[in-house]
Amino acid sequence: MKAIEIRNKFLNFFEKNGHKIIPSARLIPENDPSVLFNTAGMQQLVPYLLGEKHPEGTRLVDYQKCVRTNDIDEVGDNRHLTYFEMLGNWSLGDYFKEESIKMSFEFLTKELEIPAEKLSVTCFAGDADCEKDNLTAECWKKVGIPEERIYYFGKEDNWWIAGEEGPCGPDTEMFYDTGKPKCSEGCNPACDCGKYIEIWNNVFMEFYKDKDGKYTKLKQHNVDTGLGLERMAMILQGKETPFDTELFFNLMEKLKELAIEENIASRRIVAEHLRSSIMIINDGGRPSNVDSGYILRRLIRRMTRHLNKMGIDLSKLSDLIDIEIDALKEMYPELIENREKIKNVLIEEKNKFTKTLKNGEREFEKVSNRLKNNGKDTIDGKTVFNLYETYGFPPEMTVELANENNLKVDIKDYDILYKEHQEKSRMGSEVKFKGGLADQSEKSIKYHTATHLLHKALKIVLGDHVNQKGSNITEERLRFDFSHPCKVTKEELQKVEDIVNEQIARNLEVTCEEMTLEEAKASGAIGLFENKYGDRVKVYTIGDFSKEICGGPHVTNTGKLGHFKIKKEEASSAGVRRIKAVLEN
Length: 585
Ligand code: SER
What we know:
This protein is α+β, with helices and mostly antiparallel strands. The protein folds into 3 domains: 3-244, 2-Layer Sandwich (BirA Bifunctional Protein, domain 2); 248-352, no CATH class; 441-584, 2-Layer Sandwich (Threonyl-tRNA Synthetase, Chain A, domain 2). It is 39% helix and 22% strand. The protein has helices at 3-16, 46-49, 97-111, 134-143, 155-158, 229-236, 249-258, 264-282, 291-309, 317-328, 334-373, 381-391, 395-404, 411-420, 442-462, 490-505, 517-522, and strands at residues 20-21, 59-67, 83-92, 119-124, 150-153, 159-160, 166-177, 196-209, 215-228, 378-379, 408-409, 468-473, 478-483, 510-516, 536-542, 546-549, 563-573, 576-584. The strands form 4 sheets. Strands 1, 2, 3, 4, 5, 6, 7, 8 and 9 form a 9-stranded mixed sheet that branches. A 4-stranded antiparallel sheet has the order 12-13-18-17, covered by helices on one side. Strand 4 (119-124), helix 4 and strand 5 form a beta-alpha-beta unit. 42% of the residues are buried. It binds serine.
């Protein structure tokens, strides 16, 4: 069964069971400073898991585009991916364990026709924070999973939370038994010998973990499930790796044909990083030296190095992009219209890097020969740093080359030097702040509401051509990007600031209504219409001043915001200006 058929079956099955289909959130989240990429389906749903009402109801289903980069260096083996699609069904205070398990079992065995004997499941073993999940085990027995295929593990395996703080709870994971022999007597689903493959994770989210590590019960019990599409496609197609499925197959074959020195790990790295880069660029990502832009840069650079390593002519990149877009276009039709843009970004970045790569590799060889001649096997931190500072050769690439040449790297030493220069070369990591989730603090909520006031005030002062191009909120400030052809003058900024402060002083009530997207547009609500909204949306109205499509949450009254002050106005990109502003008490 092709991946797209699995996706469609999933959406249809849950729709038939009363779920509303919602669109995937963008890979690079708006208004969420805590993460660089969307890493799980639950991310866009955090406010609703905490009790806000979702406009589409209490049963939702979606497919979510995700990027996880913590295992980026593992890509090249037979299973790790950075980009993947997660199918998910959601109960927001609706059904709980019994119905969730019943539906999962029915979907796996009836819709996907996986024999029940192939399934093993795991449940939470219980600890001081939460009791053993006997109910889940009972539900599994009821649908027909015998006791001997039900396993119990602690928090490390059967508890789900994104980051350190947030909604969380025990989960139950479903595993597919490949039929391979047990690697040892104790072999079980927690073992990663390859006998058991995890296919689905149902999280029973009924707790909130706060910053101090304390667990409290949420207002409602939720279900958050995640089924990895690529892995499921691999299983149903009887393949050993996701690279053997239609999602990668043609590209992998082409790489084999073009390679002078064929190498399976390099082919997988190229195929995986190319697909991830295509999907990130498709969702608006661009290479840069910070945050998600830097991850994208890393992916493209590593892909380029491995193409080079296999002796593949780099001018073939355009053909390789075409092959992969053709493999994916049925699943993501917008790739067709973005094809040329994606090619331009990838080829430009590859060109920029080619020279660096040549010089860096030559320098690395010198370093490596020098060490070997001196009978040493460790590259010190300063050398790694110099390769980066002088030749632009990224440290992770030095480490990778060192591994390939049986050399070690004193990465601790490098880290010290690197930290001193962190501002110059931010490596980025997908979780930037401890929370690891949509930031729902009081301060960020205030900034969120202030952003709506600013947006409208800019339209009043500069004109209706002003549209939101981006927004980023932290606990300390808001940042707002908008379309405007020239610098905003001091006088204009003052007017904007005054208007926002007037609205704050008016103590305007902030209200929220649900309606269809069409109704929202007709009501004059502003929104990022290039974003995908569901059929039903929330519209936040601030007194008689602003009306905007938005997921929320917001303060209930503008009087709570404090004093609004613009700190900076600058260019962001061609035709886009950026304002940074703060709320003072
Ligand atoms: N949040 C869980 C996960 O990401 C289930 O969707 O695995």
